[in-house]
Amino acid sequence: MITDWAIYYQQNKHLPLNKIMESYNRLLLEYQEQLMLITQQSSPVGAGPGGQDTYTSSPVLTYGVMNFNGSAFAIVPPDATMRFGTSPFTIECWMNFSVDPVSSGYYFIEPTSGILYGIGNYGGYFSWFRSGAAPTSFTDWTLNQAGPGNILSLSTWYHIAVTRDGTNTIRFYVNGTASTTTANDPNNYLPSTNGLRIGSTYSQGLNGKISNFRVINGTALYTGSSFVVPSLPLTDVTNTVLLMKSVTNATVVSDSSTYAKSITNTSVTWTDGPIVYP
Fold first, then answer.
1. What b/e sequence results for 242-254 when a residue is b if at least 16 CB atoms lie within 10 Å of its CB, and e otherwise?
2. Of 16, 140, 143, 238, which alpha carbon lies 20 to 30 A from 118's?
3. Cβ distance 124 to 148 under 8 Å?
């Protein structure tokens, strides 16, 4: 793989300069991702605890960004891979808010068992919620990260992660730091008849951005009180069942996992990366 700019330019100088620069940047990202995979494969425990992608730098290198306008959303079709059952799982992404978040979740799934779960602002708290009631009645519990009057800053990227480990402990992380409380959730998560809805609930939506959305079924990547936030594009690690890299405008909601799910896009738009993590 040629990563030297001078050589790459000479081989492609018949193309417009902006096209050369765009393809060269893509090439560098792919090269960095390959290096990351080699690093993970050379260690029996992966690149960090649990095998997660633990790298630090700024800006965070990502392929692209999904943009949501309050009514835009993407739906991942229901299938057996999204059946968490009682197994460990990890859901993570980068998020950025354009306006103050309002009530309800920004992405969630509605299992056939009647359990709802997702991330949103509930009662003035930025929370991971789980409920057995209707989408607007979060009656069971929430794990809070930001209290009333202290909603996350606008136009700022945050790494968000939720995990359930082998002891059924749920942890909610923002920028690698777990909420001060955990929750025990032994529930059997069944696949939804509606699928995983990213970007909004049925009544409220995200005004902001999401990048590198990954779902892992069978592994809790993060289980401690903190971890090093990834700074390279998330990869198709063991047990990944959904990976939305948003590489190009044409693939803004495409699944880059081995399952290559066919995702429905409703008004989600694309912009290029990288994103900047403070």
1. bbbbbbeeebbbb
2. 238
3. yes
Which token pair is 61?
Answer: 């290198």
pLDDT at site 56: 41
* pLDDT at 33 (0 to 100): 53
Question: How far apart are the C-alpha atoms of 277 and 197, rounded to whole Å?
Answer: 25
| 121: Cα within 13 Å, side-chain hemisphere | 19
Cα dihedral sign, 54-60-61-62: positive
Q: What are phi and psi of 118, to 5 degrees?
A: 170, -170
Question: 41: buried, middle or exposed (CB in 10 Å: 19+, 13-18, 0-12)?
Answer: exposed
- pTM comes to 0.76
Measure the CA–CA gap between 214 and 119, rounded to whole angstroms: 14
Structure tokens belonging to residue 168: 């059924």
Contacts of 267 (CB under 8 A, 6+ apart): 69, 71, 72, 73
At 178-230, the pLDDT tens digits run 887 788 888 777 766 778 889 887 667 888 999 999 999 999 999 999 999 98
Nearest of 243, 239, 256 to residue 87 by alpha carbon: 239
Any idea which residue has 């001060």 for tokens?
Answer: 180
Provide φ and ψ at 29, rounded to 5°. Answer: -60, -45
